[in-house]
């Protein structure tokens, strides 16, 4: 199969998967007139970045979760933030796993596990910082300081829970898929 078609197909698959996981497998947490959620959409972004590389994997997750935001009246105003934050997760995960850890060049499962875990932690930690911070400044401008401060604390907690769950799930899923990916040559070689 043509590599470009294969990459595009996988990108579309991960975008659809991130949309479905975020939209239908989430627990919404109301914060006054605002809402946050616990979900595993970020795990899909991490897996996409591990399989496709940072830019394409981040783009896939960003597209899927941004569409999820745009189709939900509660989250529609957060679509630009989602697009940026999910792209950042993908870029960081891809950089750490593929550029620093060179996971596609190794056959050592312990080496791959270490770099997959480290890349997931780095990408999702960046999201724990970035997502609530962007949300805070956005709400500060629109809703005022008291509302921004209240939602900031809850958003940090929700983002941290999402990060821990997404790290565990993405590492376990990727390591489970790793033999198949290697056999079918689905990992990018210089991602």
TrEMBL record:
Report what the protein is called.
Riboflavin transporter
Entries under Gene3D superfamilies matching the protein? 1.10.1760.20
Give the residues annotated as coiled coil.
none
Q: Which residues cross the membrane?
A: 47-71, 83-100, 112-138, 159-181
Which Gene Ontology cellular component terms are annotated?
membrane
Instruction: Give the UniProt keywords, A-Z.
Output: Membrane, Transmembrane, Transmembrane helix
> What lineage does UniProt assign to this protein's organism?
Bacteria, Bacillati, Bacillota, Clostridia, Lachnospirales
